[in-house]
Design brief:
Shape: rod-shaped
CATH topology of one domain: TolA/TonB C-terminal domain
Mean pLDDT: 75
Number of helices: 4
CATH class of one domain: Alpha Beta
Order of helices and strands: HEHHEEHEE
Radius of gyration: 71 Å
Strand content: 15-25%
Low-confidence stretches: 38-61
Number of strands: 5
CATH architecture of one domain: 2-Layer Sandwich
Length: 223
């Protein structure tokens, strides 16, 4: 049995109607969406305007003064010393002849130094020089220090040798010589004794120490 379709049940004829209805619905939904956005935005706008009316409740807080901290003085950096590089220079420098430029400078001779004034040697003084401890101490010193020459002993030489010398102002002895002797051996021994004597007490003239000439007899006796 073959089924036949009714013209009223055929939806192909109503396709354009459905399309038109759907288009209207979409347009309506889009329009409602735009109206909803404008509707929601208005209360927010009014709220912002209302808050601007409460100016009496806003207190302005003065800005805090900025405290400027004093920066510590910074010492200037030390100067940078450039390193000096020494470079060897192999270039030969021509020597100049300076002999023709100027005459040689004449040397000025040094002034001769003044010779020290020698103290006067007195033959006699108010206070005569003296061996430390006196004549007795001198005689004992000579007996202890004398070395009788062996040759003079063998030849039996004895007697008195007179030795003259100078006692300086500081007590030292100089210019020792024999003015009357016996033999070379005894004379040499007499001079040796005098030269090795300790410092004497110097002579004095007018309260001042002076140089005095002194003659000393030295006795040589055998047995």
């Amino acid at each position: 049995m073959e089924l036949k379709k009714s013209k009223e049940a055929n939806l192909e004829n109503k396709r354009f109607g459905f399309f038109f209805v759907g288009l209207l619905m979409i347009s309506a939904i889009v329009g409602m969406a735009f109206n909803f956005q404008s509707f929601v935005a208005d209360p927010i706008k009014e709220k912002i305007v209302d808050t601007s009316m409460d100016d009496d409740l806003i207190f302005e807080i003065p800005p805090e003064e900025e405290i400027i901290e004093e920066q510590p003085e910074v010492a200037p950096p030390p100067p940078v010393v450039e390193e000096i590089e020494v470079v060897e220079d192999d270039e030969e420098v021509e020597e100049f002849d300076m002999s023709d430029i100027a005459d040689p400078i004449e040397e000025i001779p040094d002034e001769p130094e003044a010779a020290p004034v020698a103290e006067e040697i007195l033959e006699f003084a108010e206070v005569e020089p003296e061996f430390p401890g006196g004549p007795a101490a001198m005689a004992e010193w000579i007996r202890d220090k004398v070395e009788y020459p062996e040759l003079s002993k063998e030849m039996g030489e004895q007697g008195v040798v007179y030795v003259k010398f100078v006692v300086n102002s500081n007590g030292s002895i100089e210019q020792v010589k024999v003015v009357k002797g016996i033999s070379d051996a005894l004379d040499s021994e007499a001079k040796r004794l005098v030269r090795n004597m300790p410092k004497w007490k110097p002579g004095e003239q007018a309260g001042k120490k002076v140089r005095v000439s002194f003659t000393l007899p030295i006795h040589f006796r055998l047995g």
